[in-house]
Amino acid sequence: MTPDPGPPGRGLTPSERPTVPLTKEPGPSGHAGPEPDTMAQERGKGRRTHRPWSARRLPAALVAAVILVAAVAALADVVAVRAGRPSAAWRRHLTDALATRPVDDLWMVTGAAAAGAAGLWLIALALTPGLRHWLPLRSTADCPRLLASLNRDGAAGLLRDAALRVPGVGAARVRVRRHRVKARADVRFRDPRQVKDDLTAVLGEERDRLALAAPPRIVVRVRRRTG
Amino acid sequence: MIPRSVLNRTLLALAGLVLLGGGLLILFAGFDLYRRHGLGPPAGWPLTAPDDVLLGSADRARWSSQGWWWPAVIAALAVVALLALWWLLTQLNRRRPGALPVGGTPPREGVELRDSALSDAIETEAGALPEVRHAAVRITGRPAHPRTRVGLTLTAHGAPGATLGALCEGPLRTAHRSTGLDMPTEVRLKVARHPPHRTE
């Protein structure tokens, strides 16, 4: 299952490049062999070129904190009851509700739907790579163990500056998504069609300078605005 | 040792499955889907009809009359709380190697490099690259398997491809040559915020 899934030939060449040149593996490769988690992850799960996988620290911390609070609260109350004190109000409310409301009660159905949705969300978090704001960069042949990414806002800023260098462009807005770059520009002078061609060329050049592993498509829209 | 990403993702998936399963169980019984679709849930299935309740009085009486019930509940809750605490703390601390063995393979006895010294060196050299405004370097991982994380902020004229090449040729190559460590490196590039401007 690992090596063959690659119907879109788009991302494959760069992902295979680092494995091919074993140029810089001098003698001391003894302990460097069985190591890399990220590389293994890239090979195993990441059929999208060099996408780094998030560690999911924040969701994990939130879920752990919720479980911790619930468990400690329940524990404290159970122990208090065992020690002869009356149980807390929240626990009596909760057990009453759970013991009297049938499962087709509105509250129960709403709660169950919310729990199911949260469950789906957590499963999605567990299975997807995340880090959607980071665009993976092509790895350089010299540093095969380098995994680099550029954030989308940064890419958008560089592309916008490139767009503003085209003569005739008064203002430009660039939105970078993972597979498409949308640029909208106001044309102050010159023929809009010519400006659009120039913009496409300049943005394509700038995109190549970004060295993205999966270069996004560029869509340019121009609007004439004088005044 | 399991990498933190794998651990987190496994536990998140587990929590998600529990929530989803519980929710579906209630929804199936609440909308009476078993009867409507002629599904016979197996014997002992917890919730089957819309007028079932989660905590039946029979269940409560059966369990809480057992002598071992409350001690077992307390033990289970304590274990859950401890595991959750451990999981939470795993997110907070970032493992750092402390000292790195250097001097070739096998590493020479008594020769060690502080991780902060190495990261400072890489940081200084990376920060001096053209078009790099700010560099932050951290060494993570275990001493046997250190990894480098580099965060770079480029100036508005930066070219990520070229900068990456320079980083690879310069600071990272120096670090590799001087320590003998071939560390996996993760680089995050940002571009300094700036108002729209046309240069050149």
From TrEMBL, chain A:
It comes from the Bacteria. This is DUF6286 domain-containing protein. The chain crosses the membrane at residues 58-81, 106-128. Residues 117-223 form the DUF6286 domain. It holds the Pfam family DUF6286. It comes from Streptomyces eurythermus. The keyword rRNA-binding does not apply. Residues 1-52 are annotated as: Disordered. Keywords: Membrane, Transmembrane, Transmembrane helix.
TrEMBL record, chain B:
The chain crosses the membrane at residues 12-31, 68-89. Keywords: Membrane, Transmembrane, Transmembrane helix. This is Alkaline shock response membrane anchor protein AmaP. The lineage of its organism: Bacteria, Bacillati, Actinomycetota, Actinomycetes, Kitasatosporales.
